[in-house]
Design brief:
Layout (H helix, E strand, L loop, with lengths): L11 H9 L1 H8 L1 H4 L9 E2 L1 H7 L9 E9 L5 E9 L8 H16 L3 E7 L10 E6 L2 E6 L1 E4 L7 H6 L3 H14 L4 H17 L4 H14 L4 H17 L7 H17 L2 H16 L4 H8 L3 H10 L6 H10 L4
Parallel strand pairs: 3-4, 4-7
Antiparallel strand pairs: 1-2, 2-3, 5-6
Helix pairs in contact: 1-9, 7-8, 7-9, 8-9, 8-10, 9-11, 11-12, 12-14
Length: 325
C-alpha cells in the first residue's frame, strides 16, 4: 500500500465504533455472551483499569481493546475484555497475550473477565482461541471467544439484510481488504456502503458515526478521494438534506484532527478558510485578514460554527460577536 493510503491511528475508528454501539457489537459478534447481560442497566468502559494491566508497549503493533463492566441478568457484575486484532499479520503469541491480560485482570482486581477477540486479518487458517499447558501435576486450559471477519465473506446477503450497525462495519472492512489493488472498485463500494446508510433511513448521528468508520478504513488516493467527495456531495443535494452535508462535517472533523497532529496554526487557518469559501463564497480581503488574526482556540470555534453558515452575513455576525469586526 502506498504512503498516501496510510492513515494514522488505525485503531481509533474501531475504539470509537465499539463505544458508540457496544450493545449492538455484542449482539452481532457474541450473541451468547450478550444474552447473559442485563442491557437495562448501564455499562461502563474501564479505560483506566485497562491501562493498569496493559503495562508494556506493544512493539509497534496496533490494537483496539476495551474493558467493559456490565451486569448479568442475575444481578452480578462481570467484566468483558474486548480485543480487536487489527494487524494484517497473524501473531504467534496472540493466545498467550489474551491469557496474560485475563490473568492480570483477575490478579489486580479480583474480577474474572470474559475475554473476546475480533480477528481482522486475512489469513483463513489463523484462528487462535485457546492457551494451555499440561504437566503431570499441573495443567491449564484457557479458551476465549473469537470471531473472524473473513468468515462473513460467505454471508454477504445476511450482512446486507441486517440493520445492525456492525454489519456495515464488517462490509467496509471486507471490501477494504478485497480492493487493496483495485482502488476504483473501492471508491464504488465506499459510495455504495454510505448510500446504504441513507436507504436504511438512519438518523444523521448514526450516518455520521458509520460514515466516519467507512471513510477512515476505505482510504483512497487524493484524486479518487476528490471524485468521491464531489459525487457524494451531489448525492446529498439530490436528497435535499436540510442540514449541512454529512461529508462536509466529517471532512472538517478529520481535517481538524490531522491539523492538530501537525500542531500548526497555519493548517487550521487554511482549513477554515477553505471551508468558508465552500459555504459562503469568496471572502473579502479584510475578512480574510481578520480570520488570520484569530487565535487557535477562536479558529476551532469558528470551524464548528461555520458548519451552520448559509451566507456571508452569518460569518460577519459571528466575527462581530467575537469582537473581530
Amino acid at each position: 500500500m502506498t504512503e498516501e493510503l496510510q492513515r494514522v491511528d488505525n485503531d481509533s475508528p474501531w475504539k470509537e465504533i465499539l463505544e458508540a454501539y457496544f450493545p449492538q457489537a455484542m449482539h452481532f459478534f457474541f450473541p451468547q455472551t450478550a444474552a447473559l447481560i442485563d442491557w437495562e442497566r448501564p455499562y461502563e468502559f474501564l479505560d483506566k483499569e485497562f491501562q493498569q494491566i496493559a503495562r508494556e508497549a506493544e512493539l509497534g503493533r496496533r490494537y483496539a481493546d476495551k474493558l467493559v463492566k456490565v451486569w448479568q441478568l442475575q444481578g452480578e457484575e462481570i467484566w468483558l475484555l474486548i480485543h480487536v486484532e487489527i494487524q494484517a499479520t497473524p501473531e504467534d503469541n496472540f493466545a498467550q497475550r489474551m491469557f496474560s491480560y485475563n490473568l492480570r485482570i483477575f490478579d489486580k482486581f479480583a474480577k474474572p473477565a470474559i475475554s473476546l477477540a475480533i480477528l481482522c486479518d486475512a489469513d483463513l487458517k489463523w484462528r487462535p482461541n485457546q492457551y494451555s499447558y499440561n504437566y503431570p501435576d499441573c495443567r491449564l486450559h484457557f479458551r476465549f471467544g473469537t470471531v473472524k471477519l473473513l468468515d462473513y465473506q460467505n454471508r454477504w446477503s445476511e450482512l446486507q439484510d441486517s440493520d445492525n450497525p456492525f454489519a456495515t462495519v464488517v462490509m467496509a472492512h471486507l471490501k477494504t481488504q478485497q480492493t487493496t489493488k483495485q482502488l476504483l472498485e473501492r471508491k464504488v463500494w465506499k459510495f455504495s456502503l454510505i448510500r446504504r446508510l441513507y436507504e436504511q433511513g438512519l438518523q444523521e448521528r448514526e450516518i455520521r458515526n458509520l460514515y466516519r468508520f467507512i471513510d477512515w478504513v476505505m482510504i483512497l488516493p487524493k484524486g479518487l478521494e476528490a471524485e468521491f467527495w464531489q459525487e457524494f456531495k451531489q448525492f446529498e443535494q439530490e436528497l435535499r438534506m436540510s442540514y449541512i452535508t454529512t461529508g462536509e462535517r466529517i471532512g472538517y472533523e478529520r481535517g481538524k484532527e490531522e491539523g492538530k497532529l501537525e500542531g500548526k496554526l497555519e493548517g487550521e487557518q487554511a482549513l477554515v478558510l477553505r471551508l468558508l469559501q465552500k459555504r459562503v463564497g469568496d471572502l473579502p480581503q479584510e475578512v480574510q485578514q481578520q480570520i488570520h488574526s484569530l487565535s487557535l482556540e477562536q479558529l476551532e470555534a469558528l470551524g464548528e460554527a461555520l458548519l451552520d453558515f448559509k451566507a456571508i452575513a452569518d460569518l460577519l455576525n459571528w466575527l462581530q460577536t467575537n469582537h473581530k469586526i
